[in-house]
Write a structure and sequence with these properties.
With about 500 residues, this protein is mostly helical. Helix 4 packs antiparallel against helix 5 and helix 5 packs antiparallel against helix 14. The chain has three domains: about 190 residues, Growth Hormone, Chain: A (Up-down Bundle), CATH 1.20.1250; about 55 residues; about 220 residues, MFS general substrate transporter like domains (Growth Hormone, Chain: A). About 75% of the residues lie in helices and about 0% in strands.
Length: about 500
């Protein structure tokens, strides 16, 4: 596949980011909303619980319903966007986001808020993969694609860094609803920017295969169960029949999905395309990074606050090296790719993530300096892989499947994040005796927790390392317009 095949002949691709700045502003705002969503809402959960008289389970679903719907529907809407137009689906999603966000004003019960969150999850599934797919398709130059992807993801990371602080300040002067209502004007501004910054969908860029309804149902069921089941294991333990039933359901629906996609003439996800080296390796890299970072974030937060007794504010400061490193590395990604391509940097960066994870698992108990070094290694590697693996997935697919490619990358991250947290939580629950939040820990409990962290992190590092090894071997002989170790090659 040649890079120039991505746009129709009548379209003159821009040769700089400045030429499409309205589009980048709009697409960055879309990605920012998705990254900020649960981050902002988590700050307001105590207030929401008091005002809506919501139970702990209801509050969990306020955030969980969004994540499950978002993760479960991305593949479906990615496929829909490739068929009916990426910009068109983006506009529909932004409209739904604005209406659902504004609907928060009329919420009076936890059930109503959960319903609003479900609608916002649907909107996110329609818009988030599209933000990367549309930015990718603006250009016929690989370096500009990487730069655009870097810009959009950097905006999201800045939002995550300042989100809790901004949310806390807003709650001091305004009702909690403002944290969701603010999405409405952002959605409107994004739609305007995309309307004037991105050309209309071209029929030549879409494929005409009918939607695979049974495949969509099976794929959505697989992902939803894969997202819900890990939470059941953490909450109810490995002896819970509900958790094992969910796991069995996820496996059964996954098998049925694969059989369906291999036998139907018009699959929702063409598994032959997913098996392409660029695509398969990119998804594996994303999954490895998701496992590593989820496990780290879960255990470090508990260690700093519960094992070491740090106040929440101090613990938040303790995570700053991760955010600062990701922001600092961003401007250098396109230079690295321009010189070395995506193959080598992606593998080396993923190995850095695994090394940081192992460092934390073995030495994190001996002082914060080891945690800080691990955070720097992991965040630097993750920052590069986030961009290069996503670009590889979309580059490895035909021009009329780029939205599906973005959805595959995002889905891999969502599912692996859930699994990473579940593995960490289950191991901690199995080794730690007593309640995690049941007051000051004894020295024995601290030792138990540290042993659990080491076990969980090394386990995750092993699985993530196996994924990275497989991805690097799979991509070793891949062909793409992007250079590998300084050379270029063509699609087989």
């Amino acid at each position: 596949m040649s890079a120039t095949a991505v746009q129709p002949a009548a379209y003159r691709a821009p040769q700089s980011l400045r030429a499409v700045w309205p589009a980048l502003v709009g697409l960055s705002a879309v990605f920012l909303v998705e990254m900020l969503d649960n981050t902002l809402l988590n700050v307001a959960l105590p207030t929401i619980g008091r005002q809506l008289h919501a139970s702990a389970a209801a509050l969990q679903w306020v955030t969980g319903a969004y994540a499950v719907v978002f993760g479960g529907l991305m593949l479906l809407f990615g496929s829909v966007a490739d068929r009916f137009g990426r910009r068109r689906v983006m506009f529909v999603g932004l409209t739904l986001l604005a209406l659902a966000s504004f609907g928060t004003v009329f919420v009076h019960t936890a059930g109503e808020l959960i319903a609003v969150r479900v609608l916002m999850g649907v909107a996110a599934a329609m818009t988030t993969p599209g933000s990367m797919a549309l930015s990718f398709r603006l250009f016929d130059n690989d370096t500009l694609r990487v730069r655009a992807t870097t810009v959009i993801s950097t905006v999201g990371l800045v939002g995550v860094a300042v989100g809790p602080t901004v949310g806390g300040l807003l709650l001091a002067v305004a009702p909690w609803q403002i944290l969701l209502v603010v999405n409405a004007p952002i959605a409107v501004l994004s739609a305007i920017a995309i309307r004037f910054g991105i050309p209309a969908d071209s029929p030549a860029d879409r494929h005409r295969d009918p939607i695979d309804g049974p495949g969509a149902v099976l794929g959505t069921a697989t992902i939803v169960l894969a997202l819900v089941t890990p939470t059941l294991f953490v909450q109810a333990g490995v002896g819970s029949w509900q958790a094992w039933l969910g796991a069995a359901g996820a496996i059964a629906s996954a098998v049925c999905f694969v059989v369906r996609e291999r036998t139907t003439p018009h699959p929702l996800v063409d598994l032959h395309l997913v098996a392409r080296p660029l695509v398969a390796s990119g998804i594996a890299y994303q999954a490895a990074i998701g496992l590593a970072t989820a496990g780290l974030s879960y255990t470090v937060t508990l260690q700093l606050q519960l094992a070491w007794g740090w106040a929440p504010a101090r613990a938040a400061v303790g995570m700053v090296p991760m955010v600062v490193t990701m922001l600092a590395v961003g401007p250098f990604i396109d230079r690295i790719v321009s010189r070395f391509g995506t193959g080598g940097p992606t593998t080396i960066s993923a190995v850095a993530v695994i090394a940081g994870l192992v460092l934390y698992g073995l030495l994190g108990r001996f002082g914060y300096v080891w945690i800080a070094v691990a955070l720097v290694l992991i965040s630097a590697g993750m920052r590069i892989v986030m961009v290069t693996a996503s670009v590889n997935v979309m580059t490895g697919l035909p021009p009329d499947r780029t939205s599906l490619g973005a959805a595959l990358s995002d889905t891999a991250q969502e599912v692996s994040n859930a699994i990473g947290i579940a593995v960490s939580g289950t191991v901690v629950a199995a080794i730690f005796v007593g309640g995690l939040t049941g007051g000051q820990w004894t020295n024995t409990q601290v030792s138990q927790f540290e042993n659990a962290v080491t076990t969980a992190i090394i386990l995750l590092a092993g699985v993530a390392g196996a994924l990275v090894l497989w991805a690097s071997l799979r991509a070793h002989h891949y062909s793409s317009p992007i250079r590998i170790f300084g050379r270029r090659s063509g699609e087989p």
